[in-house]
Design a protein that fits this description.
The complex is a heterodimer of chains A (115) and B (115).
Chain A lengths: L4 E3 L2 E4 L5 E6 L6 E8 L3 E9 L2 E4 L8 E7 L2 E6 L8 E8 L9 E2 L3 E5 L1
Chain B lengths: L2 E3 L4 E5 L4 E3 L2 E3 L5 E8 L6 E7 L7 E2 L2 E6 L4 E6 L8 E9 L7 E2 L3 E6 L1
Classes of the chains: A mainly beta (115), B mainly beta (115).
């Protein structure tokens, strides 16, 4: 089975530009998570969805960040406008939740560099 | 809020030897999960091992085992017969058992394998 698929793998753009990161979860998984990894703050949960509904977005750093999950097989994380401090690796993960939680499976991440 | 602490920023071990990575956590919940994830230089997040808090038996996966001390809120990872491919960052993580929830990560331990 295909794992979690993220695109692009690398993104370099200038500050002020809109950035869209994409994620396709594992088929059949009903929960999707977005994380950010930086040297200073480590791995942080930004937002997660359950059955396509955002459950907790308290980790989203600012209004410049938004996330959507229009259907069970696709999610986006958008930054508009982007700033140099948004440079990080962004991970998407998915899992099957119901009864006992199942482990989260991670995509390969998107390395974002804002110049 | 839950916190996860990894007190060893870096550990070094000789190939074929055994090494133990430490992790402590703080929570008021009784139902939760604990994980160890491995992140090699390729930046993939790879699940190493998972422990359910209600299970007293320590989880084991081949050369990887944990020492789960619930009262002490300690969750250490033991790697036996260390191999060069074990070199990576290792992250301890916590997840609430109350339903779909995000992971809370420690800062990580960089494991070096000496040939």
């Amino acid at each position: 089975d295909a794992g979690v698929i993220q695109s692009p793998r690398h993104e370099v753009t200038e500050m002020g530009q809109e950035v869209t990161l994409r994620c396709k979860p594992i088929s059949g998984h009903n929960s999707l998570f977005w994380y950010r990894q930086t040297m200073m703050r480590g791995l942080e949960l930004l937002i997660y969805f359950n059955n396509n509904v955002p459950i907790d977005d308290s980790g989203m750093p600012e209004d410049r960040f938004s996330a959507k999950m229009p259907n069970a097989s696709f999610s986006t994380l958008k930054i508009q406008p982007s700033e140099p401090r948004d440079s990080a690796v962004y991970f998407c993960a998915s899992s099957l939740q119901g009864g006992r939680n199942q482990p989260q499976h991670f995509g390969d991440g998107t390395r974002l560099s804002i110049l | 809020a839950q916190t996860v602490t990894q007190s060893q920023p870096e550990m070094s071990v000789q190939e074929a030897e055994t090494v133990t990575l430490s992790c402590t956590y703080d929570t008021s919940e009784s139902d939760y999960y604990l994980f160890w994830y491995k992140q090699p230089p390729s930046r993939q997040m790879i699940l190493v091992i998972r422990q359910e808090a209600y299970k007293q038996q320590n989880a084991t996966e081949n050369r990887f085992s944990v020492n789960f001390q619930k009262a002490a809120k300690s969750f250490s990872l033991k790697i036996s017969d260390s191999q060069l491919g074990d070199a990576a960052m290792y992250f301890c993580a916590y997840e609430s058992g109350g339903g779909a929830d995000g992971l809370t990560f420690g800062k990580g331990t960089h494991l070096i394998i000496q040939p």
